[in-house]
Amino acid sequence: MSQIRITHFEPEHRDAIRNLNFEWLEKYFHVEEIDQQVLSNPEEVILAPGGQIFYAWYGDQIVGTVSLMKIQDQVFELTKMAVNEAFQGLGIGKLLMEHCLDYAKLQGIKQIIIYSNRRLERAVEMYRRFGFVEIDLGPVLYTRADIKMSLDIS
């Protein structure tokens, strides 16, 4: 774990969020129009409205990513979490989640929501371990989403 570090978005690494997410989306589902839009324009869609993108590095390689995307004041969506398949099982997702939650507390974010799919059992279980609870799915932007979870930050 000591060889893994988390950094914030840097323009020279902008393709990492797209490449890591396309990898898992194409394996388990498909890349939807909303994914294309967000992952091709992360500065405009995630960062400009007040969100943040984080990268997990193993040595000199970006092996994971996650984003907090602003939905409304003090409510953010944890989205675009991906870890390169060759590096899964090392706790990188957990480190990214811990970093997001620490960042959210420092920024005064009150609620984080996640859209996911029950087929991604390990991811959904990790969200539960961090205290996320299932809430009504409501209208969704992702056709693959069949579960919505929420965490109130105190």
Q: What does this entry look like structurally?
A:
The chain has 154 residues and is an alpha+beta fold. The chain has one domain (4-152): 3-Layer(aba) Sandwich (Aminopeptidase), CATH 3.40.630.30. The protein is 35% helix and 31% strand. Strands 1-2-3-4-5-7-6 form a 7-stranded mixed beta sheet.
The secondary-structure element order is: EHHHEEEHEHEE
- Read across the widest sheet, the strand sequence of neighbours is 1-2-3-4-5-7-6
Number of domain modules: 1
Largest sheet: 7 strands, mixed
Distance between the termini: 27 Å
Query: CATH superfamily name?
Result: Gcn5-related N-acetyltransferase (GNAT)
Instruction: Quickly give the CATH architecture.
Output: 3-Layer(aba) Sandwich
Instruction: Tell me, briefly, the overall form.
Output: globular
**What integer value in Å does the Rg equal?**
14 Å
Oligomer: single chain
Helix/strand/pairing category: alpha+beta
How many beta strands in the DSSP annotation?
Answer: 7
CATH topology: Aminopeptidase
Tally of separate helices = 5
